[in-house]
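Forum: Protein Structure Q&A
Topic: Joint prediction for protein chains with partners

I've read a bunch of threads here and the consensus seems to be that you should model interacting components together rather than docking separate models afterwards. I'd like to see that in practice. Below is the full input, 394 residues plus whatever partners are listed. Could one of the regulars post the assembled result?
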Amino acid sequence: MAVNIEEEYDKIYRYCYFRLRERELSEDITQETFLRYFASYHHTDSLSMLKCLYTIARNLCVDEYRRAGKKETGHSGGQPLAVSAEEQVLTSLAVRTALSRMEAEEQELLLLRYVNETPLAVIGQIYGISRFAVYRKLLAVKGKFEEELRKEGEF
Amino acid sequence: MKKKEWKKELRQVFEPPAPMRKKEFIRELERPGIGFCGFLMIQAGYIRKWVWFASAFVFFSSLVGAAVFSADMLWWVSAWMPLLALTIVAESGRSENYEMAEMEMATRFSLKSVLLARLGILGVENLLLLCLLLPVGLCNNLFGPIQAGLYMLTPFLLTAFLGLFILRRFRGREAFYLCAGITFVISLMVIFLHDNMPRLYGEERLLWWAVAAAMFGFGTVKQYYQFINRMEDFIWNLS
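Posted by a regular:
Agreed with the consensus. Here's the joint model:
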């Protein structure tokens, strides 16, 4: 299965933006990820390529935290990720509130699996755990998220 | 809210501002292609292990027989030659055996280029093996290199010719079983003729062997040509 670079660019950018919250910086890191990948790897299968791309992007984001002396926070309910007013209207407040109550790693899992549709094997590689462990973790995170939505009267 | 709906909402929550330099970056991004050697290395990795084991078995058993037991190994080598030919035939028809030919035509590398690369790799490997086995086959007998070479090459080419002929006319596993049967019969025939008709291996019959080897060689090349052409017909039919 061939990898669509444009599509993967968007996903890696979304992932970097989730972690860094700075448009310019996220785009720089996204481009650096692709440059480093193509400089060092020549995978022919999409799974190996995605594993490498996400690992490079994650490491670059961690380097960026260290360089700037920042702390990983995750998404907060009060500060929306999307900037468009139309999107703010469309986006359910309950989802944002529920998300803000989740841990940063749980939010990252939700982003990777349900937004970026990253395969379990790739997520496992990012966290250094097996696919089965990822599956169990996802079930727990999904349950917690739905529980939070229920508290908001949305599920 | 249903699961489908919160997934949609989640997508909106996580949506970042649109990237500014995406198009320029992707346009200028130099994606390295795979070189010819890289392509061959990848294809060599997909050749099944039993193919390499068969070659290693023929080589080492002949070497041990000639060096340790001082035996005349020409007939041993000659009898195993059809197996080496079978490895090439089996690799050629692998996509069709598993009914994957149509799918492989839609992949990054065309089925034709993959097939040619694998046949090239196995052809070079068998040629090297033949060159290595020739001195082994010359040990402990009075045959010259041309004579020994012909006795080794003829069963190989006969198997390759008949195997490809079958591959073009039959499909699926049926073709492989027929090829395996023919390989077995030719191997037995080599041993039977050597034991029961020694006159066939006299110097006066050398010309016949040379003519037979040339005919089977020509037939093999022709069958390969038609086999590869049939791949093009496949593509034409699918498009």
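Chain B has a mean pLDDT of 82.
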